[in-house]
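User: Look at the shape:
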Amino acid sequence: SRSLPTLDLSFEGHAHETRRRVNLPSGLVEVTLQPLRDTGGARDTRVRVRGFYRTRGDLGLNWDLGRGPTPSLPTVWPTPYAERAGRNTQTNLDMRLRFDVTADIGWGVSLHGRAHVLDNLRWGSVPDGEFVGGVVNQLSPRDPIQVRQLYAQVLLPFGMLYAGRMGALIDWGTGFFLNAGNGLDDDTGDVGDRIAFVAPLGGLLWSVAYELTASGVGSDALRPEIKPAFDLDPSDDVRTFAFSVSRWDAPATRQRRLDARRTTLNFGVLAAYRAQQWDLAAGSQPAINTAIRRDLEAFVGDAWVRADVGPFTFEGELAYVGFRIGNASLDPAAALNVETTGQQLGAVLRADWRQGPRFFARVEFGYASGDSRPGFGARPTANAARAGDLDGPQFDLTTTPRDANLNNFRFHPNYRVDLIMWRRIVGTVTDAWYVRPMVRARLWSMLSVEASVIGSVAVQPNSTPSGRAPLGVETDIGLVYEQEHGFVARLDYGLLVPLAGWTNVVRGVDPSLAHALHLVMAFRY
């Protein structure tokens, strides 16, 4: 008789392995079988790290526009304290290292995080020594690492569930209202502590979210030994509820459709509601006499649509912010009982034309509603603004009659249309409309040139330093070098021709030209 093939059965345990041999009929092969095991202790974890190191520099010339002081500021832009033959130039170099980490810890389960190292740290800003001429070392800043996002997601049978501190889950829209801050030259980004659920249904993405925008003072203010600290009074929480529906193609999917000249329609609608009942006076201890009945309610709506038709793209986005604050005072003793309201509107319209992969042109129109009070309201201070000021609060409850309306819409600071006026001097687009034609051409495989002209006019002339509407015409030219992987560099030059809105009426001084150089080098991984 001939020998028979065998079946090798292996039973794995923590301390030993049991093997059995079983005779089988001829014609079968020898195999090894393993029983089902608990996978809780043997997860297949993958960690992916992406990000960039960025260093960038600026050279600014005459950003104060040579117009002299405003009623509340020495100049509209800080000037050097050491006079150098009338030259008003300033420079900046800074850096940032970004880590975007994703850990896949199971089927459909992952953790996500974003951290910034030496975020926007200015070169030479922390010298190790009082006599800086002899310094040979730079100190680490107080907060060298900033954790911006940390959240988890899980794939459920009926959608995706997210929990934690996160940015925008879908980076749709033009970016003038909602902006995740993913760009290489971005400074900030929208981040919130929220629970969100996203589900595909009928070819659309539906999402709902609950955000604890601010939790107020904690129990550690009264009893530091209690760990962890609890929300001392939930009635002072700021809570936000959001809903959105969208049809959105990922950038790679959209690019394939653009290359094939396929017509593509993307759109999205978002609505959010925010409320706060009580508040605590800033810097005060939690007590009955420091509580402020805030009664805040706010509604946000945003609608976006984009159509790719052959070589053309038509895109538009409209955002609305409306709110009511029963008591806007920061002092609990000042029960003003004056309702403060706001009706703010912002919009961007675009028309693009592509001539193959080497030429791109765009015409853009932007609008941000304004307020009749002096100043733009982009970076307001606590002091009331006077006619001729660059900035200031857009409401005043101390005057008679009281101004209890706040109507100026502010674009997201990451949405930049120029180099000098809106980005640097004012801070963001607000209380104005602008027109921006732009062209981009690829000179060779890795080098492109871009040029744009931005004409801006104030919506409310009272907001400008002179009380006149025309603001300026700026020309920006950029040169971009981009390798397929790893490195991108961009050098921009800007020339601002300020118009009558910047005239110093009191002194009778017209504004003068301003120049800017901006360099960004990013090493991506």
Q: What stands out?
A: Residues 1-40 have pLDDT under 50 and may be disordered.
